[in-house]
Amino acid sequence: MEGKEEDVRLGANKFSERQPIGTAAQTNDEGKDYKEPPPAPFFEAGELVSWSFYRAGIAEFMATFLFLYITILTVMGVNNSGSKCKSVGIQGIAWSFGGMIFALVYCTAGISGGHINPAVTFGLFLARKLSLTRAVYYIVMQCLGAICGAGIVKGYQKGLYESTGGGANVVAHGYTKGSGLGAEIIGTFVLVYTVFSATDAKRSARDSHVPILAPLPIGFAVFLVHLATIPITGTGINPARSLGAAIIYNKDHAWDDMWIFWVGPFIGAALAAMYHQIVIRAIPFKSR
Fold first, then answer.
1. Which stretch of DSSP H or E encloses residue 35?
2. Which of 30, 35, 140, 175 makes a 20 to 30 Å CA pair with 133?
């Protein structure tokens, strides 16, 4: 039992592993009362000597690796098809991204919180759901996982990978940079707002089914955002996904708009965190 207690002592695993995605709901033994979870410390040095901290980073790396591997292969298959009617099309790409997020959040929520996206990590950090130490570590591991995932795909068929665009995000012809930035901001807002709503600690304490169902609305939000914004930017809403594809594809036009796929998601995540904490939960206005 000592190993078990130490393993869940810090960070995203501070409470029982059935609490998903970086949240930390607290209830009493009967599960009737609710206490606001304390904010995570800004810097928690104790995490650096905990195996659960490094295990969580490895889980984020592996999840982002698998995410890029499956989704880029899907994009390549659609782009390589002579007719969109003979492939899964935009709908299939959207299902690939949304379905993988659903599966990977389900698999990793109890280990790392199942972020798989620097924008999600950033939003949860702003809401004080995890420390700066863990947030930076997660973002680094997510980016490394994305690079490796895209690299494995390119290693299979380099020619096909490059001829089909390598899954890199660019603003499509006919759209302005502002349109692309707006699409990324709003798309990421939808995703991160859904993450906050699906994993809200108060709802988890009140409705026991919420932690179990959390991966479903998150994956579905990713699916819907992709349906809307694939024609505009190819849909980033995940800086690690955009960076990994751009590094491995490594063409000038893939780098021209890279700032949009970092600035947009981070602004969207910040707005979602503010909206949830200030408007939905009204936490700053609650009496202590």
1. strand 34-35
2. 35
Closest among 142, 3, 168, 161 to 67, alpha carbons compared: 142
Close Cβ partners of 59 (under 8 Å, ≥ 6 residues apart): 108, 111, 112
Cα dihedral value 226, 231, 232, 235, nearest 10: 30
| Main-chain phi, psi angles of 128, to 5 degrees | 65, 40
**Residues 6 or more apart from 28 whose CB is under 8 A from it?**
none
**Across-strand partners of 27?**
34
Kindly state the DSSP code that residue 46 receives in the 8-state scheme. Answer: G
pLDDT digits (tens, 9 = 90+) for 173-201: 999 999 999 999 999 999 999 999 988 87
Q: Three-class SS of residue 239?
A: helix
Report yes or no: 12 and 113 within 8 Å, Cβ to Cβ. Answer: yes
Distance CA 258, CA 163 (A): 20
pLDDT of residue 157: 86
List phi, psi (to 5°) of 34: -130, 135
Backbone angles phi, psi at 117, to 5 degrees: -170, 120
